[in-house]
Amino acid sequence: MLASRALLRSATREGGRNAIKALVARGLLSPVNSSIGIRSKSTETKKVFPTSHFHKSHQVAHKSAVPIVDDHFRGDYNSSSIIQGADACAKAGISNLGINGPSTIYKNQTFEELFQHEVANNEGKVAHAEYGDTFTVDTGKFTGRSPKDKWIVKNIGSESDANIDWGSVNQPTSPEVFDELYEKAVNHFNSLDKAYVFDGFCGANPNSQRKIRFVHEMAWQQHFVTNMFIRANDEKDLDGFEPDFTVINACSQVDEDWERHGLNSEVAVVFNVEKKCAVIFGTWYGGENKKGIFSLMNYWLPMQGQFPMHCSANVGKEGDSALFFGLSGTGKTTLSADPHRALIGDDEHGWDEEGVFNFEGGCYAKTINLTEKTEPDIYRAVKKDAMLENVALKGDDLVPDYFDTTKTENGRVSYPIFHIDNYHEPQMAGHPNNIIFLSCDAFGVLPPIAKLTPEQAMYHFISGYTAKVAGTERGITEPTATFSACFGAAFLTLHPTRYAELLKEKLEKHNAQAWIVNSGWSGGPYGVGERMSIKTTRACVNYILDGKIEDTTWTKDEVFGWEIPEAIPDVDSNVLHPRNTWPDPAQYDEAEKKLANMYVNNFEKYRIGDVDYSQFGPKL
Question: Model-level pTM?
Fold first, then answer.
């Protein structure tokens, strides 16, 4: 058995499907559609995310980014249990929700068990990716978040009522509507024979870590949260587990009474902060699970004086961490997955007195035009235990076609973070040296790189200029210029200035340098110019992170006031100055003034507080 496990490890790591088939033929491995419910404990557990065994020492800056060999077998995270009988729900901890119907609960299934359930339940297809067979799902018409269908219960007189920034992002609904939808979700699960329950964690920092429980209908949904949240290593990590928040995902059901409820559609994603529970109806998109919890972390952490961030993060060999802020599609995941630096995380982080820390246990990367040459770490992460969403498959072998966007341009892959060879195992690092604001400029005005003063950093953080990229939300079919406060307005539960003040404190205390990096268009606007190549953007980021950029000569932009380097290795000097790339410089001047006006007009609503940061924006 040890020999067969060694062979399987090699096959999984290197994508050797033939080796796996050989093991099946030799009777050393069960076919994927058999053995449902069989539990096998790994005896070679290696901890990646300490949970109940955290020590303060884990929070200091680690001085090594030596690549970590991916020797994790998928059973290494095993707190799996199958609970059967009339009291299954009580033993699984969900009877207090009112869910008592299912007589079988699959709780915290291993990667192996989830894969077998997915295949047996016919929940999708097995794609033959180059580095290993990967389960793939189709989420129907919802291939992105549905922000107009996200609601928060307005409990009059409560703490959340007083602090939440109510409006188009945090739409209020009543306790009565939530109670009706909650009852509907519970009744649905009570009609089922089985359910999937995941108990895990959000936040690598023990001082702010939250215990999260998900109740799902399908194995692939548990697979998604198993990839994305911090997994328990074994059952001991779940001793006395009492969730801080529970999500009941009844995605197969819809709210037929949405008009009476005053909602936007039959889709409903509703959070009740005081009841510590959310319900999901009508959307199968996996991202609703993770982004909902991120919004809650954006509520909880500032109450503790900690800074939640919509950013990716990595750390160098000298312990020099860097943050990459940006919306979906701007390059957060791609640029933080750097072969020369260790990945902390790709999307959601916190910053406290000890440094930065990941919220998640995995990554959720876009797959559009994915190749091994341009994004090797992400490409190689598509293997066993990863999961593809809305990715086209071609041929009888069902090979992923990342260039076929017929379904959506928002194809995704979720994978546990240890699929990245050089991930930063502690998931925490020291205070960042560099903070990079990624903007996908659809107007072709911004330079590929610009240096900001601390005051300009505050202005551009609050502004959060970028473009909504096709496919990340319903109705977005091409890049659309937008301002998203703090580079994540859709997930901010408090007023943007609350987060800006936290950033100000961190910048002043730790002397971090802020930058603008444009991963959008050059040589003209969308439809005329071309999008910056990953090679160009990567060269700019590398020059920042290796410290050599400080030796560069700078030119100040007359309109935006930031400084642009005269030269960077491997980057065309004309591209550094975007006016030089336009066929007609006069048209560039007109576009620059137009974009500057958009900045100024957008910032009017933020001219509050002791310091008016509008003076650090563009000058007309």
Answer: 0.84
